[in-house]
Amino acid sequence: MEETYEPKTLVEAIPYFSDLDVCVRYFCNLRWPNGIECPKCGSKENHSYISSRRIFMCKSCRKQFSPKAGSIFEDSALGLDKWLTALWIIATAKNGASSHELARSLGVTQKTAWFMSHRIRLAMEAGTFTKLSGTVEADETFVGGKA
Known about the structure:
147 residues, 3-stranded antiparallel β-sheet, 7% strand
């Protein structure tokens, strides 16, 4: 993939992430640093981009896939422009960003902002934007207690 520009301030981030095509390119570079890969068959070479729908078509398995497929953004009708702006707001807020604040900033409902913030915080906690798949094992740990 090509080298991408990364905005350093909010003043730079807002106009940069307002273009949906720029957001798709930016997210594809983050998600697939070694080239776009079909989530169905794993092919890295045979794909084409359908710009009118902002999706990819794998020429190997003939399946269409969105850049959001398999990520925390997958089951959302919101575009990457809103998601990346929300990610920026949450990641740079010193004392956190409430869902009400996020809703006002993005122009979405509070319920939508709450959903977005929970998905983003879970991804930050896990350290990745991909969804867990297959068999997942989790152990319980308790740290602390009475002194």
